[in-house]
Specification:
24% strand; OpcA_G6PD_C
């Protein structure tokens, strides 16, 4: 059931939700959270579709906030709120409200969203594109226990990681981090099978791919070994090679779907490691609403190394290093050691692979 409301208020939207639920005989008690999606008109359809698919696992009230920027100065003074209320088959397993904000109300989106939140339920805010540099201090982000961004959607995705680390607040997360969950699980399981020490790692993937950089940061943080970042044609992450005192461990995925795990002394194994769509990523993020300490540790590790290599000064929010080499992102430099650096750098203390 779909209801269109023009020049409306939050109170009228709540009444429309109650009326729609009664009309189709659907109670609201089955919803477990409120998902707020902040996007533009161009990306609203894809984000709403992903949220609808994820609602099959996490029934929720989905509020889509679309800020309509007026071109005419006269239109900017005319505040208006239009809404589209969807309940039943049109909204997956929950409820959906599409909010289009016009004029001055664009600057007060939190006042529109607050009355529509489910009572006594967690709130998650997701920015598919154009996320703020400091999500926790954003007026909408301040309402949420969990804030989801996607650095892959930024113009300079890898460089954006430095700003994300600088503004990190417990509850922040990134879909670029979520994309590497299967890789992290597979690599940890491979190290559990043999008793060895890792001496060096190579991460291979697309250039300017934040997921590749985050995986390199995580490996360097957890293993305390040199991590070399190499580039390939993709798609996405293509391979991770770990040099150990028991022989190499290689996880290679050339086609973006099926990977091969090779461990010294064992037969090669084919493992499913497909590239997941946005609905699967959002569903994973909604499974846990507590702070992701592992993500925070990996992110801060990369920025700390960046500070060391730039004389103690990391890029401030929105700033970029003018002395960076072309096509070499800052976070790559923060965790990667090239051949020359490896020859002169002090050898790090090796941690046990079980870490």
């Amino acid at each position: 059931m779909k209801t269109d409301l023009t020049d409306t208020t939050a109170s009228k939207i709540n009444k429309a939700l109650v009326k729609a639920r009664r009309a189709i005989g659907t109670p609201a008690v089955g919803m477990v959270l409120t998902l707020v999606i902040v996007t533009d008109e161009e990306n609203a359809y894809d984000a709403l579709k992903a949220a609808g698919d994820a609602s099959r696992e996490h029934p929720s009230r989905t509020l889509v906030v679309i800020k309509r920027v007026s071109r005419s100065p006269r239109d900017r003074t005319q505040s208006r709120l239009d809404a589209e209320v969807r309940v039943g088959a049109d909204a997956g397993t929950g409820e959906t409200v599409v909010l289009r904000l016009h004029g001055e109300v664009v600057d007060h989106a939190q006042s529109v969203v607050l009355p529509l939140l489910l009572p006594d339920a967690p709130v998650v805010v997701w920015w598919p594109v154009n996320a703020p540099l400091d999500p926790a201090n954003d007026p909408l982000g301040a309402l949420a226990q969990r804030r989801v961004t996607d650095t892959y959607a930024c113009e300079q995705p890898v460089k954006e990681l430095a700003a994300r680390a600088d503004a990190y607040t417990p509850g922040d997360t990134d879909l670029s981090w979520t994309r590497i969950t299967p890789w992290r699980s597979m690599l940890a399981a491979a190290l559990d099978q043999i008793a060895c020490q890792v001496q060096g790692v190579e991460v291979e993937g697309e250039e300017l791919n934040p997921s590749c950089e985050l995986l390199a940061m995580w490996l360097a943080d957890r293993l305390d070994v040199p991590v070399r970042r190499t580039r390939s044609a993709g798609p996405g992450l293509t391979a991770v090679r770990m040099d150990t005192d028991c022989g190499p461990i290689v996880l290679d995925r050339a086609d973006g779907s099926l990977a091969t795990l090779a461990i010294q002394g064992q037969p090669k194994r084919a493992v499913a490691l497909k590239r997941r769509d946005t609905a699967e990523l959002i569903a994973e993020e909604l499974r846990r609403l507590d702070p992701d300490d592992t993500y925070a540790s990996a992110l801060r590790y990369g920025v700390e190394r960046l500070k060391q290599e730039n004389g103690g000064d990391a890029p401030a929010k929105g700033e970029r290093n003018s002395g960076e080499r072309e096509a070499v992102p800052a976070p790559v430099e923060s965790v990667a050691k090239g051949p020359a650096a490896e020859a002169t750098a002090e050898a790090p203390v090796k941690k046990a692979a079980a870490k």
